[in-house]
């Protein structure tokens, strides 16, 4: 969608949401819980990365970490929420920075040092990043993340990525990164492939 938001007539808005809470509330389970699906996912993630030209690297160990009890992204999601509340121009860049760190480099995105590292790479000053990091544990940020997560579930989200298109006074929920072509057909835009020129 980031590749298309200057091509299509759309207003793209990122809404941070906490996947763990969505999965728990909807009774959904990670696909990697099924051994055969886990094996398939490893192959499919590589194919999708190549097709979409994104540097994703999935290993069995990395997927197993995703299934653990410790939330791997809550700190990042709260930091992104604080950015959404105070520095929204950085939202896309910081979100991408966390994605690269987690999915390409297999590095932590939850600890303060990790969060500050992403912030520095995306152009936030150390002073801005420190103030945002201090907001992470505030009731305002926690409540905002809870609210956006609840909103996602009200639209029908049961996992991520969840895309909600508001078109012709209707809301259309799409689940997964492979539904962009279908989204295009609903909103009357042309799909130009995964990497439009």
UniProtKB/TrEMBL annotation:
It catalyses: RX + glutathione = an S-substituted glutathione + a halide anion + H(+). The keyword Secreted does not apply. Belongs to the GST superfamily. Kappa family. Keywords: Transferase. Its EC number is 2.5.1.18. One of its GO terms (biological process) is glutathione metabolic process. This is Glutathione S-transferase kappa 1. Residues 1-187 form the DSBA-like thioredoxin domain.
């Amino acid at each position: 969608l980031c590749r298309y938001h200057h091509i299509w007539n759309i207003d793209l808005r990122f809404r941070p949401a906490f996947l763990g809470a969505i999965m728990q509330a909807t009774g959904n389970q990670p696909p990697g819980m099924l051994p055969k699906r886990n094996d398939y996912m490893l192959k499919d993630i590589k194919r999708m990365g190549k097709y979409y030209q994104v540097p994703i690297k999935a290993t069995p160990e990395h997927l197993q970490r995703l299934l653990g009890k410790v939330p791997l992204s809550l700190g990042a999601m709260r930091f992104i929420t604080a950015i959404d509340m105070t520095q929204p121009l950085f939202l896309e860049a910081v979100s991408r920075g966390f994605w690269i760190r987690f999915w390409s480099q297999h590095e932590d995105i939850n600890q303060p040092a990790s969060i500050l590292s992403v912030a520095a790479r995306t152009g936030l000053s150390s002073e801005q990043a420190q103030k945002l990091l201090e907001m992470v544990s505030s009731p305002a940020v926690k409540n905002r993340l809870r609210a956006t997560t609840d909103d996602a579930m009200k639209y029908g989200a049961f996992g991520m990525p969840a895309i909600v298109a508001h078109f012709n006074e209707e809301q259309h929920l799409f689940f997964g990164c492979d539904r962009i072509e279908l989204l295009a057909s609903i909103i009357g835009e042309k799909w130009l492939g995964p990497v439009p020129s």
